[in-house]
Design a protein that fits this description.
The protein is globular, with a radius of gyration of 26 Å. Helix 2 packs across helix 3, helix 5 crosses helix 12 and helix 14 packs across helix 15. Helix content is 37%, strand content 12%. The chain is α/β, with parallel strands linked by helices and 527 residues long.
């Protein structure tokens, strides 16, 4: 069985999760109360109501107006009148319509912010980012459609992640999902305006297939500061994410006589599928509390291995110093390490560890991206290959797409070099830590005896549990309750203990307990 390290009994405490909600300057869908005729008494002077949700402050108990308003807004989120993305009226507008103090409305918004249901966005106002799930009925699939739980039956196919992504849910714990609501829109727009203001006509033509020189220079600096990797800009190849980097590598590896790339077990199902689709075998290598077992790696006979050493997916194990030395000795004997540094920036309770590429540049192909740091939609990543593979990879990139779109590269370079990306990372670390703590606290109460793995870093937790319930059945039962998770067995090739892989980065802290409670209910029913 693939070992699961960094074991901790679930601990932690309740937390809050978002900055204080702002007013914004736009009124959203709130409006003036009108002339009061809808009240039936024809008296506007006594109307304490708002067109927004038809709120009537006269219904509030004396001394409890903030409690009343919080309850009304939560109810509207639960029954669908307020959906994710809805904008609440500014505090001054709603307070005037209800004829209550502005402090009453501000206090109600503050509580909803702490619950993770709304978020202040300055000029964007106060926006609903998560709805209460307790009263929302499960989504009904279209007639003739397979039930959502059917995707957990049998061996997962190539489209399993697409199907899971499309499945309706109330709470989404899919691992690897960054908090897309945190995308630094203002900083990105400022950088984009600055880039466009300085952009020459020459930059609007075809770019260098290796990537814009400005971004390659910025990435080299980013890797030196954050990952201990010292490279020249010309050693960096800009790609459309790690997935494309692997696609470009497939023929390069085969041309070098490599027909198998060993993978961690447990390890990413998606990565394994990607390698196999490219015609490469993916023999499993067990992972223990120190990382991938190098003796087992040697036994596979594979000349290449794909690793996530900074934060192993999905167990969260950090490859130990001794194991790193063993890996580097294996590579020095003629092996190739493909280092997927997918979320190394997201660490909370442990010091940083340098990338393997920092120690053995001619035997490590380093891969990174901004998918977990900014957004997958940008499709920007980078590869730092060994010298002997660099020219072939550049050719593969050239004949695939002539290079990534130049404008987003220039904007990202501006963010990196201005310090904007590092400021964004610091914000994310605080937010993710609070959400992680909320999930651990919820697991303590709802899944007693469960063991959490990999809590010190990343965007997800792996949880193993005592009952002898197949994790695919538990995942299907959770989805039937509106909670989306991934079974640990999806990411195994060898038998092992059942568990779930739970992403927390994209879920507000106030929503997490309800999702975990649904998982606990499903597990108790199946046990």
């Amino acid at each position: 069985m693939g070992g699961v390290g960094e074991r901790e009994r679930v601990t932690g405490g309740p937390t809050t999760d978002a900055p204080a909600a702002g007013d914004g300057s736009a009124s959203g869908n709130g409006s003036a109360s009108g002339d009061g005729s809808a009240l039936g008494d024809g008296s506007a002077a006594h109307a304490h109501g708002s067109d927004f949700l038809q709120l009537d402050a006269d219904a509030a108990p004396p001394g409890g107006k903030a409690d009343w308003l919080v309850g009304q807004l939560r109810r509207a989120m639960a029954d669908g009148r307020l959906t994710v993305g809805s904008r609440l009226p500014p505090t001054r507008v709603l307070a005037a319509e209800l004829r209550v103090s502005r402090g009453v409305v501000a206090e109600a918004y503050r509580r909803l912010t702490e619950d993770g249901r709304v978020e202040g966005r300055r000029r964007g106002g106060t926006v609903v980012v998560a709805v209460s799930t307790a009263s929302v009925p499960p989504s009904v699939p279209p007639a003739g459609a397979a039930p959502p739980g059917a995707l957990f039956l049998g061996t997962p196919g190539a489209d399993v992640f697409d199907a899971l992504r499309a499945a309706p849910c109330r709470v989404d714990f899919t691992p690897g999902r960054p908090d897309l609501t945190a995308f630094p829109r203002s900083a990105w727009l400022r950088a984009e305006r600055a880039v466009l203001g300085e952009l020459s006509a020459e930059h609007l033509g075809y770019g260098d297939p290796r990537g814009a020189p400005e971004l390659r220079r910025a990435v080299a600096g980013w890797l030196a500061r954050g990952r201990g990797i010292r490279v020249e800009p010309d050693e960096v190849l800009v790609v459309a994410g790690t997935a494309q980097a692997l696609t470009l590598l497939h023929p390069v590896l085969r041309a070098d006589g490599i027909d198998a790339v060993a993978v961690e077990d447990p390890g990413s199902l998606g990565t394994r599928q990607h390698l196999e689709h490219g015609g490469l075998a993916a023999p499993p290598v067990p992972v223990d509390e120190d990382g991938v077992r190098v003796d087992a790696l040697r036994a596979t006979g594979a000349r290449a291995v794909l690793l996530t050493p900074a934060h192993q997916f999905p167990t969260g194990v950090v490859t130990s110093g001794e194991r790193r030395r063993e890996l580097l000795r294996w590579a020095a004997d003629g092996g190739l390490i493909i280092e997927d540094d997918y979320d190394a920036e997201h660490r909370y309770d442990r010091p940083p560890v340098p990338a393997l590429r920092a120690f053995l540049d001619d035997r490590v192909c380093y891969l990174g991206s901004v998918s977990k740091l900014l957004a997958p939609a940008l499709r920007i990543g980078w590869a730092v290959p060994p010298r002997r593979h660099r020219e072939a990879l550049v050719d593969a990139k050239r004949f695939t797409d002539l290079g990534n779109a130049v404008l987003p590269q220039l904007v990202l370079a501006r963010l990196m070099e201005s310090g904007g990306l590092e400021r964004h990372l610091r914000l994310l670390r605080g937010r993710h830590r609070r959400r992680r703590d909320a999930m651990i606290h919820a697991l303590t109460g709802r899944l007693p005896g469960a063991v959490v793995h990999g809590a010190a870093a990343g965007l997800h937790l792996t949880v193993t549990y005592a009952p002898d319930v197949p994790d695919t059945e538990l995942a299907a039962a959770a989805l039937a309750r509106g909670v989306k998770v991934q079974p640990l067995s999806w990411h195994r090739q060898r038998p092992g203990r059942p568990g779930l892989v739970l992403g927390y980065a994209a879920t507000p802290a106030g929503v997490i307990p309800d999702g975990v409670a649904s998982i606990g209910e499903a597990l108790r029913e199946l046990s």
